[in-house]
């Protein structure tokens, strides 16, 4: 029972944050670890609840017209492949090297987010073909990371879509949900095959994650960019502190 009291509220909060700015795994994954699950079981169980919640947010954003499906089909494929490979690697090697890389990337990302023009500056859109190629490559890269480790995937992808692919904030949020759902499903399949998902806890937590994603998606469609920026900053700070703790204190 204590496990559920720890995990469920935090998974709800993680779902809310994930629907708005990505990075919900920064909140939900530590919740599973605090409940006493092993790292691999925590990642696998978190993938299950995250997949359910992200599905709800994806449907919501699709209905709002934020998802351009024709441009995303190649990206869905590379996201699935990248995440599957990343999940396989997670079963084989230590992930400290990724954490060290993230410690370097996070401050840079934070500076970009704090730039007032990062989420609001208009960028001349690329051609459909160029946009599709860029999104497809970003999906492969973030798929590898999400399958291997995961937390922060949505936040990083959203910023890359805006800064590199030159898509609008609304389209970036919708695209992030589609790619993140693809990576979650692919990596989840690996963890399911290896028995790394604790279903009783995962199913109950998934209901809370679905509720959080649904409410978060509704808030975003009403609040827009002004609501996203501070949440992204908070998520990045939490992630940075979490990585420092894992690398330098918890060992």
Cα-based radius of gyration, to the nearest Å: 17 Å
N/C terminus separation: 28 Å
What fraction of the residues are assigned to beta strands by DSSP?
under 5%
Report helical residue fraction: over 70%
Report the biggest beta sheet as strand number plus sense, adding barrel if it closes.
none
* Domain module count: 1
**Arithmetic mean of pLDDT:** 84
Structural class: mainly alpha
How would you portray this structure in words?
- The protein has 251 residues and is mainly alpha-helical.
- The protein has one domain (2-249).
- It is built from ten helices and no strands.
- It is globular and about 50 Å long.
Key terms for this structure?
251 residues; mainly alpha; globular; single chain
What's this, in brief?
This protein has 251 residues and is an all-alpha fold.
List the helices and strands and how they pair.
Blueprint: H1 2-21, H2 25-34, H3 39-63, H4 69-90, H5 96-114, H6 128-148, H7 153-163, H8 169-193, H9 199-223, H10 225-249
Helix pairs in contact: 1-2, 1-3, 1-9, 2-3, 3-8, 3-9, 4-6, 4-8, 5-10, 6-7, 6-8, 7-8
């Amino acid at each position: 029972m204590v496990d559920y009291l720890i995990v469920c509220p935090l998974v709800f909060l993680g779902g809310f944050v994930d629907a708005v700015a990505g990075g919900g795994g920064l909140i939900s994954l530590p919740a599973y670890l605090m409940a006493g699950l092993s790292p691999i079981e925590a990642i696998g169980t978190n993938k299950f609840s995250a997949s359910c919640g992200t599905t709800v947010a994806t449907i919501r954003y699709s209905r709002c017209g934020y998802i351009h499906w024709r441009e995303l089909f190649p990206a869905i494929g590379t996201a699935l492949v990248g995440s599957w490979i990343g999940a396989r690697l997670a079963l084989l090697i230590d992930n400290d090297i990724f954490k060290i890389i993230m410690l370097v990337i996070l401050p840079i990302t934070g500076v970009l987010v704090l730039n007032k023009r990062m989420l609001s500056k208009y960028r001349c859109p690329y051609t459909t073909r160029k946009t599709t190629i860029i999104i497809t490559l970003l999906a492969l890269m973030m798929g590898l990371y999400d399958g291997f480790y995961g937390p922060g995937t949505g936040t990083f992808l959203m910023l890359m879509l805006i800064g590199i692919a030159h898509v609008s904030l609304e389209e970036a949020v919708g695209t992030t949900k589609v790619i993140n759902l693809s990576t979650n499903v692919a990596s989840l399949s690996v963890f399911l095959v290896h028995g790394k998902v604790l279903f009783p806890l995962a199913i109950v937590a998934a209901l809370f994650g679905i509720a959080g994603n649904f409410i978060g998606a509704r808030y975003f469609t009403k609040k827009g960019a002004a609501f996203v920026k501070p949440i992204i900053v908070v998520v990045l700070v939490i992630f940075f502190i979490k990585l420092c703790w894992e690398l330098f204190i918890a060992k």
